[in-house]
């Protein structure tokens, strides 16, 4: 469901269902609902890929690039593993690289075995990961976010990257796989000392908001700490409660820095800079709501799941990129988007690839804190469509 949040800005709830005729898509080539799981597709499989994968005894998951791209591509890894299971091909699965700890939380990897299954190795990852780990592999599968199209089947479009990766591999492997929308794996929560310390300080017991200030493109995607603070103040005043705001910064290479601002009338602010992604995966499920720009930590927040299986609402802010392509598709992962983002979604466009002029939109100025606060309040109050 789409709602108008303010002039030129729209709110898109999670689990977005897009009719095939509403966006530019590539027909999948078969009615997925009518093909039983495990049955051959009415399309020719990639014979060479099938032959090479069938002889592999180990799968290495290797992502070295951007966090968000890597997380959204894990559905492609799931597709390959689903195919191997359907064919009763026994493999060991391990992750390498900077995200190996996060990938282990998805349940996609297996525990190390004294004797791995015999056979060759398949490496699945991004280009940097393949270059680092795929020199001796029998199969190298590159999961590039620019490659898989927005497919449509059963009258529905599947614009999210997790769906694109999964369905593209289902087509190549030639068998109806068991995965269903939204296709994205989730990340399990573990114990964390900082989370427990914050809880003991009263941060996670009352209204706790998290805002992601980290961004790889500050001139386009920085909502700014001050706007987030103003947003939190709007929410606190309406709730008639003191709010706690966690401002999540990046640069983990500089080490963790925790900085408290002087208490305000309605909001207490704590800066968390350089917290490792694994720790943030533990922290996010304890917040009541998370807001962030279109960046890897926002995707991480959407995929992090509490021990009880629950996840707080996550809102991504989309000024220039398609709000549907760069979301997980999970039901609690929402989007606030500009008209330009909607056009990128409708035409399956990329502002970089398709050379959209940088002055076409007003970037993060498009999201007034007061209007964004109303969206947040609706979600906090349990409004669902």
Oligomer class: single chain
Name the shape in a single word.
globular
Average pLDDT number: 90
Distance between termini? Answer: 7 Å
How many strands, what sense, and barrel or not for the largest sheet?
Answer: 9 strands, mixed
Structural class: alpha/beta
Query: What percentage of amino acids are in beta strands?
Result: 15-25%
Proportion of helical residues = 25-40%
Question: With helices defined by DSSP (H or I, 4 residues minimum), what is the helix count?
Answer: 12
The tally of strands reads 19
Strand order of the largest sheet: 1-2-19-18-16-12-13-15-14
Please mark out the parts with pLDDT under 50 across 5 or more consecutive residues, or reply none: none
* Radius of gyration using CA atoms only: 21 Å
Folded structure, characterized:
By secondary structure, the chain is of the alpha/beta class. The protein contains twelve helices and 19 strands. The strands form four sheets. Strands 1-2-19-18-16-12-13-15-14 form a nine-stranded mixed β-sheet, sandwiched between helices. Strands 3-10-9-4 form a four-stranded mixed β-sheet. Strands 6-5-7-8 form a four-stranded parallel β-sheet. Helix 2 links the parallel strand 5 and strand 6. Helix 2 runs parallel beside helix 5 and helix 2 packs across helix 10. It is globular, with a radius of gyration of 21 Å. 47% of the residues are buried. The model has no long low-confidence stretch (mean pLDDT 90).
